[in-house]
Amino acid sequence: MKRCVVKFGGSNFKSAGDMAKILKAVRLYEKPPVIVVSAFYGITNELIAVMDSTVQDESEILRITDRLKNMKRESLETHIIDKTAREAVYEKLRSRLDELSRVLLGTHYIGEIPPFIRDRILSFGERLSSLIVAAILDFHGIPAVERLPEDIGLITDGEEGNAAVDFAASEASVASELPEDKVCVIPGFYGVAPDGRITLLGRGGSDYSAAAVARCISAEALDVWKDVNGYLSADPKSVEKTRRIERLGYSEAAELSYFGAQILHPRTVEPLEDRSIPIRIFNIDNSGDKLKPLSVIGLDADAPKGPKSVTYTDDFAVLTLAGAGVGIKPGILAKVTGALDRSGINIKSVVTSQTAINIYLNEADLERTDTVVRSLDMTAVSHIIPRRDLSVVALVGDGLGEAPEVAEGMMEALDKRGVRFTIFSVGASDAAAYAVIPRKQRAEAVRALHERYFPTV
Ligand code: ASP
Ligand code: MG
C-alpha cells in the first residue's frame, strides 16, 4: 500500500487539547503518513496584523513572539510530560521565534515590508505548527520528523503571495526526501522559489500544499481532516436538514470551493485530478476507530450525476461597464483585463452583452478595479457602475450544464420565494448553475433552492 498524505488545518488547532485528537487520528493509519499542517487557528491573520504594526512600533515584536511562545508552550506542557524532552523542543522553538523577531526587526528598521519578506514572515505560522506536531507525535511513540519545504525541494514558480508549485522541478526531490519509516510533518502554505526565496501559495493554501505533496509522492489518497461532517447539501448554518454527499467528482469539488463552500481551497484538486488521487474528508471530532471518510472526491465519471449541493458566496461584487456598443467593439475587454492583471486584481468571471460588460470580482477589489478601469479612459464606455451588496447562490452537480430543466427549476424556486436575481448563468460549467442576487435575500435563496432540490420527506 502507498502512503497517504494527511492534512490538518487551522480548525484542528484551536486549543491545546486538540493535539489529542490529532494523535488519535494519526494512529488510525497503518503506514506512516506524510502530514501537512496549517498554522494554529487565526495565527496567519494575527501575523498579518502584527507585521504592519511592527513597522511603526518595535514593542509589537515582543508581544507577538511572546504570544506564540505561550500558545505553543501550552500545547507542549499538555502533551509532552517529560521535562527533558520538552526542554529540547523549547530550544528549537526559541530559535525559530528568534528568527521571526530578527526578520520583524529588519522590517521595523527599513520601515517597510518587501513582498518576499512578507511571505517569509507569514510562513512562520505553519513552521511553528510543524515543529510542535512532529515533537508531540514522536514523544507519543509515533516516530516523526519535521521536513520543511526548503529541505525537500518543494519548488514554486516564484510568484510572491500566490505562487504555484512547479511539479517538474519538485516531484523527484520531494519523493526522495520523505523517509518512509517515519511520519514526516511538513508546514503547508509555502514553497521555495528556484532562487531559494520563500513564496506563499495563497491564503488557505495549505490544502494546495498537501495536494502538491500527494502528487509528488503518488499518494494513496489526500486525507483532509476538518471539524465538520464532510460535504453536505448546504451549509448547516443556513438550512435545517442537510444531506451528506458521500461521493463527488473533482469538478464538483472545485465548483463548490469556487462558489464559497469552505471545505477545500479551490486549487486543491488541480494537482490530483490527472493522477486520479482521491481526496477523502474526515471529521476530527468524530474519528471513530477505523478510517471511514465522510466524503470522497474522485473522478467525475465515478461520482453519481445530478444536483449535489446548494452553496453561496457573499464575497462578490460586479463592475458594469455600460456603453451602446461595448459588446461588439474589439479590444475593450483586452484593455480592461490587461490593466487589472497588471494591478494584481483577480477577475472571477466576465459576462457581456451588446451594451454592458460585467466583471465579477471579490468585494475587496471593487474600489480598486473601479479606479483602474476609469483611468483607462475608454470612449466606448459611457458609464462605469460599481454594484455591491450582492451574493451568488449556486447549485452544484455534474451534468447540470446540460440538463434543460435546471434553469427553469432554479428560477421558479427563487421566484416563488420572491428572490430577485440580476444575472443567471447555466452552462458556463457543466457542474454548476448560479444566480446573482441581492445579499439581503441570500438566506432565503439558499433555503428556496435546497427545498426544491433536496426536499425532506
Ligand atoms: N494559514 C494559512 C492561511 O490562513 C494557510 C492555510 O491555513 O491553509 O491562509
Ligand atoms: Mg483551510
Describe the SSE topology:
Elements: E1 5-8, H1 18-27, E2 34-37, H2 43-56, H3 59-79, H4 83-110, H5 115-139, E3 144-146, H6 149-152, H7 167-176, E4 183-187, E5 190-192, E6 198-200, H8 206-216, E7 222-226, E8 247-249, H9 250-258, H10 270-273, E9 279-283, E10 295-298, E11 309-313, E12 317-322, H11 332-342, E13 349-352, E14 356-361, H12 366-375, E15 383-387, E16 390-396, H13 405-416, E17 423-429, E18 432-438, H14 442-453
Parallel strand pairs: 1-2, 1-7, 2-4, 3-4, 7-9, 8-10
Antiparallel strand pairs: 5-6, 9-10, 11-16, 12-14, 12-15, 13-14, 16-18, 17-18
Residues 9, 204, 207 line the site of magnesium ion.
Features:
eight-stranded mixed beta sheet; four-stranded antiparallel beta sheet; binds magnesium ion; Carbamate kinase; globular; alpha/beta; 3 domains; 457 residues; binds aspartic acid; VC0802-like; 14 helices; Alpha-Beta Plaits
Report a brief summary of the structure.
The chain is an alpha/beta fold and 457 residues long.
**Text of the CATH class of the largest domain:** Alpha Beta
Q: What best-fitting shape do the alpha-carbon axes yield?
A: globular
Could you describe the largest sheet, including whether it forms a barrel? 8 strands, mixed
| CATH homology group of the largest domain | Acetylglutamate kinase-like
Radius of gyration: 24 Å
Strand order of the largest sheet: 3-4-2-1-7-9-10-8
Tally of strands: 18
Which structural class best describes the helix and strand composition?
alpha/beta
Number of structurally distinct domains: 3
Give the mean pLDDT: 94
The N- and C-terminal alpha carbons lie at a distance of 42 Å
CATH topology of the largest domain, by name, is: Carbamate kinase
